[in-house]
Amino acid sequence: MKVDVVIPVHNEEHVIEASVRRLYSHLTHEFPFGARITIADSASTDATLAIAWQLALELPGIRVVHLDEKGRGRALREGWYTSDADVLAYMDVDLSTDLNALLPLVAPLLSGHSDLAIGSRLMSGSRVERSLKRELISRAYNFLLRRSLGSHVSDAQCGFKAGRREAIRALLPAVENECWFFDSELIHLAEQAGLRIHEVPVDWTEDPDSRVHLLATAIEDLRGIARLRRAGRAGASAPAPQQLDERIHPTTRTETPA
Q1: Which of 89-93, 115-119, 127-131, 197-201 has the lowest mean pLDDT?
Q2: Which of 56-60, 93-97, 234-238, 249-253 has the lowest mean pLDDT?
Q3: What is this structure's pTM?
Q4: 3-state secondary structure the chain
Q5: Confidence band, pLDDT 50/70/90 cuts, at residue 250
Q6: Residue 7's Cα: distance from chain center in Å?
């Protein structure tokens, strides 16, 4: 299995079937590599999980994992940890990002040229349709990441990311957040560890029925940034690059004959 696309869900009965079928069709007819969809349900209380199991029974190449606790990061962690694919990806269930960006996202990972890949709504070449409010919030958040944590990525929040399995699994134990700050923290740790990060411009359309609570998410993000700054001052913000090298790039190391 080359690529595993994890879709984290919580109470998404209104959209999950249409979105999964649309993604499944894209992977089946337009994507050139073997791929699987993993629906990672975190404590849904509606019919989301039942619909996910129904889709998995009907369509080959769909996997379902379920957690009793809520949290997007928690769902991604479980979906990635239990996957055997070469590349571990994720996207939001609303499919706001155009699916044609999936191949450019994963290609440098499959070729070994990058360790992580990130969809960006703020790069030149991106086409974005969203409210002025969300545009300003997104730009302010990424500016804060750059100033506070020294980030070099343009868009840490886009729900469209992927990584080589070895890189993802090496970083996951160090990621503390289990909710919305999860992938921002993952990117920060990857940057601190010197991993190769590739950004891809995407076409993105805002979902008018988004379930993201802006105030609660903003508070969580600010707390996460403050925690990482404290960890950085204490010298424990990320695994040391040499600790990750053997696991992420095993082919670059050679054994010395005895």
Answers
A1: 127-131
A2: 249-253
A3: 0.88
A4: CCEEEEEEECCCCCCHHHHHHHHHHHHHHCCCCCEEEEEEEECCCCCHHHHHHHHHHHCCCEEEEEECCCCHHHHHHHHHHCCCCCEEEEECCCCCECHHHHHHHHHHHHCCCCCEEEEECCCCCCEEECCHHHHHHHHHHHHHHHHHHCCCCCCCCCCEEEEEHHHHHHHHHHCCCCCCCHHHHHHHHHHHCCCCEEEEECEEECCCCCCCCHHHHHHHHHHHHHHHHHHHHCCCCCCCHHHHHHHHCHHHCCCCCC
A5: low
A6: 9
Average pLDDT over residues 200-227: 83
Q: Does 183 participate in catalysis according to the annotation?
A: yes
Q: Which pairs with CB-CB distance under 8 Å and at least 24 residues apart come from 53-61? A: 55/16, 55/17, 55/20, 55/21, 59/20, 59/21, 59/24, 61/24, 61/27, 61/35, 61/36, 61/37
Q: Which of 98, 183, 209, 245 is catalytic?
A: 183
Average pLDDT, the chain: 89
